[in-house]
Amino acid sequence: MALVLDYVALETRRTLRDTGFVIFGIGMPVLMYLLFTNIGGGADAAWKTASMVGMAAYGALGAALSAGTGVAEDKALGWLRQLRITPMTPAQVVVGRALTASVVVLPAILTVLAVGGLVNGVSLAVWQWVLLTVLLWLGSLPFTLLGIGNGYRLSAQSTGVVNVGCNLGFSIIGGLWFPAQFFPGWLQGISTYTPTRAISQIGTSIGQGEAPGLLALTVLTGWLAVFGSYAVVSYRKAARTA
Q: How far apart are CA 32 and CA 177, in angstroms?
């Protein structure tokens, strides 16, 4: 466990020193949230809360996927070969990377929530703010594993492109940018089973003081298992060819 924690501390410091991550992973979701809720005379309280959840989830998604780019760069530099000679197992390496990304998604989530409360006047009970933060944080884990899997399987350049595509695709189809109820019927059906829609529904439920729906929790758990398996398999393949 000590090896994993040391690995997490090292990768966390490296990520938070990246200026690009700070600008696009934290600043961009805040800017989009302010634009979406203040253009055209502003928005009502319900949309400010829903958009806050969506943009916090979007920021967490981007930060989580960015872990994959770091993985691909490390693989190209030979860092993966160095990890192979340590006592860490493939599962421990993947868990270490996932924990690192779980740490760095927090600034993206907390910044958007802070802007929602301090600038847009979103009013929630203390327990709602805390639970919303925790659930958005946990909800980003499947995307962390997806990004890690892409990083181990693809080149650094390809990982960046694929992760951006995953970010935009899941964000739009999952209703993080625009309410999913405005989608055509067939697209709403697809959206229901995306992990981003599940996160949005869970967060919105908390914002309304309600318990998260069972379907959303089940969908998110299913994607966690799928992306987790993908990350471990990708690491093992990369370790054999590195």
A: 9
Q: Where are the domains of the chain?
A: 2-241
3-state secondary structure (DSSP) of residue 213: coil
Contacts of 142 (CB under 8 A, 6+ apart): 195, 220, 223, 224, 226, 227, 228
b/e string for 207-217 if b means 16 or more Cβ within 10 A?
beeeebeeebb
The span from the CA of 42 to the CA of 189, in Å, is 30
pLDDT in tens, 86-141: 666 666 766 777 777 777 788 889 999 999 999 998 999 999 999 999 999 999 98
Measure the CA–CA gap between 183 and 197, rounded to whole angstroms.
13
Q: For the chain, how far is it from start to end, CA to CA, in angstroms? A: 25
